[in-house]
Amino acid sequence: MEFVQNFPFMTIILSLFSGPLSSVLDGKKAKRLNLAVISLIGMMSAAVLGYVLKTGEPYVYLMGHFPAPWGNEIRVGYLEAFMALFFCVIMLLCMIGGAKERENQIEETKQNLYYVMVNLLLSSLLALVYTNDLFTAYVFVEINTISACGLIMIRQNGRTIEAATRYMIMSLLGSGLLLLGICFLYDLTGQLLMSNIQEAVRTLYETGTYHIPLLVSLGLMSVGLAIKSALYPFHAWLPDAYGYSTLSSAAILSSLVSKGYIILLIKIFYRVIGFDIVRDSKVIHVLFVFGIAGMIMGSLSAIREDNIRRMIAFSSVAQIGYIYMGFGLGTPAGVLASIYHVVSHAATKSLLFTAASGLTDASGGSVRYADLTGAGYRNKLAGVAFTAGSLSMVGFPMFSGFISKLLFAQAAVGHTYKMLPTLIALAISTILNAVYFMKTVIRIYTPMSVPEDSGKACRIGILDQPQKSLALVCFIILNLLLGLSSEPLIQLLQNGLEMFH
Predict the structure, then answer these.
(1) What is the Cα–Cα distance from 52 to 356, expressed in whole angstroms?
(2) Burial degree of 321 (CB within 10 A; 0-12, 13-18, 19+)
(3) Is residue 223 over pLDDT 80?
(4) What pTM was computed for the model?
(5) What Rg value do the Cα atoms of the chain yield, rounded?
(6) Per-domain residue ranges for the chain?
(7) pLDDT tens digits, 471-485
(8) What is the pLDDT of residue 456?
(9) CA nearest to 174, candidates 122, 135, 228, 220
(10) How many CB atoms lie within 10 A of CB 120?
């Protein structure tokens, strides 16, 4: 075994143990440790991606070298290595972009606790990406839930405590359903390693044994993860959680937390149950219907909002709908489109939250549309960044969102029953996206009718907020790269999906 093959396990352990270590440091030292850990894990993930690209094959890492069914496994292929690297990049930029807000909005004595939660969250995301054991995945789902809840409520301004309570109630409901599904599956198969479960499930399916319990198990796990990733109508916790937490928390929650659950669901579909069995079970039809409902209803809710951060949050409900609609198509092309949209949405939504923060900084801290008038002139980089993110969400060519919508449309073409609903939903959702995002862009570029110095409005230059400016520039470049150089990434994701079997 080459040394680089140990890196996936080492990254999980490194981020896991850096959490408790941060708790005994002061805020500044914990911040430096956090940035160093994320950067180191990003470099190690890049090395793992380079290794699997060079070998062209996935590999399995045995914990303690104990074989199944006694040991635990990590499985690494193209998709896992890329997602680990991508999650690190997004988290690093979110932490850099929101540094100033964290210092102002979190009590000095609690700042180190924030980094404890971030490190544990990164560990859970890496574990969900890499693990080949279903119960281990559940354990890290719970770590993910607790960490995300801590990120929401650490600001402690009343609304965040209410938002964290809602999040915890809905998330624990999803976790309970997921655990029930795993228990049923373990009872049926006697296995917890994903590849071993699939062999047992295949035997049960071919012999027609325990068909109903198997369907119930799949349904419980799918619904549980759908609730945790805020699929409509299970999204009630999301607007407040994203709208009132700190900038870094909102960006990380919208970009990464729900994506970890979606990656786990893809693993369950492909590696635990088998995608052909999932397609025959009709569960995907339910996900398809709720996905389309989310695309429309999330956008309608965003149109009615007068708060820019809550508007972006409701937009996430619509984008999660896109992902589940892609799953619901029941084809490899649909799943590929959903995976690409996971990447696109993570890059774009963190850009939008960071840019919106820059616009509100130039508007006296107000998030109301009326106070954001002319904010694009007062903070020019934030205005450009928000416009770029908006164009991506609408599906404008050159940006990552255009590629996502193109892939969804291509996946739907030729589908016997779902082509027409998918194309209609894409068209309606795109129009609605344009309504609320372009409305905001027009607002921030509408000149103020009163002198700027008459209120709290102020001008902010690029050098006034260097960390946020750096994050915004990097997010814009990342979005353009995903939009203009998408073919290599699509090929990588497609090859990675094929390795999932």
Answers:
(1) 38
(2) buried
(3) yes
(4) 0.90
(5) 22
(6) 282-501
(7) 889 989 988 888 888
(8) 65
(9) 228
(10) 24
The C-alpha atoms of residue 500 and residue 497 are separated, in whole angstroms, by 5
User: Which residues, 6 or more positions from 356, have their beta carbon under 8 angstroms from its beta carbon?
Assistant: 308, 309, 312, 367, 382, 386
Q: Is 282 exposed, middle or buried (0-12, 13-18, 19+ CB in 10 A)?
A: exposed
Q: Report DSSP state, residue 65.
A: G
Omega within 30 of 0 (cis) for the link into 58: no
- pLDDT, one tens digit per residue, over 356-402 is 888 888 777 777 877 777 777 888 888 888 888 888 888 888 888 88
Reading the block at residue 71, the tokens are 């040991």
For the packed helices 134-153 and 159-189, what is the interaxial angle rounded to 10 degrees?
A: 180
Burial level of 421, CB count in 10 A (0-12/13-18/19+)?
A: middle
By the 10 Å C-beta count (0-12 exposed, 13-18 middle, 19+ buried), 453 is classed as exposed
The arithmetic mean of pLDDT across residues 137-150, rounded, is: 87
Q: What is the reported pLDDT for 301?
A: 85
Amino acid at 20: P
Report the alpha-carbon distance of residue 247 to residue 154 in Å, rounded: 12
DSSP-assigned beta bridge partners for residue 62: 73
